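Posting for a labmate who doesn't have an account.
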Amino acid sequence: MSAPVLEISDLHIQIDDKPILSGLTVTVRGGEIHAVMGPNGTGKTSLAQTLMGHPRYTVTQGRVTLDGHDVLRMRPDERARQGLFLAMQYPSEISGVTTANFLRAAINARRGEGNNIPLKEFRDRLDEVMKFLDMDPKFANRYLNEGFSGGEKKRNEILQMLMLRPRIAILDEIDSGLDIDAIKVVAKGVNSLKGPDFGALIITHYQRILDYVRPDVVHIMVDGRIVKSGTAALAEELDKKGYEWVRSELAHAGRA
């Protein structure tokens, strides 16, 4: 199978007739880590939710393709089966469904009918990944995210990513509210997948996670569009100067 390619072209979205994104374009290929940074309210989470098919968001213009297939025509479950994965900013709690049962059902859905993962293979793989992420094995038998701390929920999102091994992962503020030790575990999981068969779009406010997951490309997003792109050095510059530096540069360019 060839390396994955997620292409977002001139994407415009709205909620209740209110524009959120206005002409966003970015391409993420296998082997690449992209970071999208921007202030609150600029549309970063809306981008993540739109890519996974949240019904609240209406696409009014543009295209999204994964390996040439029209993502916007797919149901959310079809997007997941094609290899898209979303680690959510606020993971949901599901009472009555253990983490292990949830993961096995998700893997079997990806594999297709009649191709279920054998139970021993699943348990061995789950034990291995949980050990890699320094997770207590007891978490596998707890209801999904129920009673988990914020850090435990984020670590559980990374556990899901490593078990499912998506082609393109969208990580929506996966570092939000985490201490340095938890950020290092999250980064360890992302870095372990990096290679030609995996690409990631990391959405974040802050530069600190990018100290541990080195991005190939950094995009700065303001008012629903990407206004500046560069190397990891751009995130470091933004961390020092703040978003007002970007806005002042845009204002100056508009006057030029």
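Reply:
Got it, the structure tokens are right above this. The chain has one domain: 5-255.
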